[in-house]
Amino acid sequence: MSYLAQNIQHLLDKNNINAHQLQEKSNIAQSTTFRIINGDTKSPSSTTVQKYAKYFGVEESDLRFKDLSDSIKTQDDGDNFKVVEKKPVRYVPLLNFVQAGEFCEYHDDAISDEFRPIFGEGYGENVYWVALEGDSMEPDFKSGELVLIDPDMQPNPADYVVALRKGEKKVTFKKWRPRGFDEKTGKEYSQLIPSNENYPIIDSRFVPFTICGVAVERKQMLRTI
Questions:
Q1: Which single residue of 75, 115, 205, 212 could bond 104 by disulfide (Cβ 3.0 to 4.6 Å)?
Q2: Contact 99, 213 (CB under 8 A)
Q3: What are the CA-CA distances from residue 17 to residues 9, 20, 78, 149 (Å)?
Q4: Beta-bridge partner residues of 93
Q5: What does the alpha-carbon distance between residue 183 and residue 12 come to, in Å, rounded to a whole number?
Q6: Closest CA to 215 of 135, 91, 120, 123
Q7: Burial of 81 by CB count in 10 Å (0-12 exposed, 13-18 middle, 19+ buried)?
Q8: What is the pTM of this model?
């Protein structure tokens, strides 16, 4: 049994580095690391594995066939400790507003040079992180904050969504509000609501838009490092 993917992820976490930092320090391409961790490359060459082993100071055989991580960890619970299962990790694309717009319009694989982890199970197969832009959702969301988008999920009222307005290449991030049927046309319409009152509400009757995905998680910086 090979523990390679699990061990590489464990050693990244243990050393508090990501695949980008690993590439800078060891010349191991990010894409190589992501493919191994995600299980796309199940049997990398010995030369590749030796690079990981050398960098992390372990034996190649241990990296492949020995569980270098603890299967469980403990969490302080007052005077006692409780067992907490380790959560599986998966790397998914990080897109900007233009890349998310292209993915929405052409329904192709998300193209990105950057990836970020998600922890645990239950996420959709095609989820991706998007980096927010502008201040239209302040104070609820900040520019640069990462939000996890599921493009296969249908929105419910008050969900946050990414949407693509007709004729534009960049998505926008707003709260979605269905409004029922228009009295004049008899057609359903909805609105995209900004948190910042200085920005207008986007109404599908006047500015057609497509819902590209629903926000399911956020990654927020509480202060600048």
A1: 212
A2: no
A3: 10, 8, 30, 24
A4: 115
A5: 57
A6: 123
A7: exposed
A8: 0.66
Give the C-alpha separation, 208 to 205, whole Å.
Answer: 6
**Phi (first) and psi of residue 116, to 5 degrees:** -135, 150
Mean pLDDT by 10 residues, the chain (225 residues): 82 86 86 86 86 88 79 49 60 91 81 82 90 95 95 95 95 96 94 97 96 92 57
Q: DSSP strand E in the chain: where?
A: 72-77, 80-85, 89-95, 115-119, 128-131, 146-150, 160-165, 171-181, 188-193, 202-203, 209-219
Report the run of H or E that residue 47 belongs to, with start and end. Answer: helix 46-56
Alpha carbons 104 and 214: distance in angstroms, whole number: 12
From 119, 221, 122, 130, select the one nearest 174 (Cα to Cα).
130
CA nearest neighbour of 134 among 124, 144, 149, 126:
144
What single DSSP character describes residue 155?
P
CA gap 101, 168 in Å, rounded:
8
CA 26/CA 5 separation, integer angstroms: 17
Q: Which letter does DSSP use for residue 63 in this model?
A: H
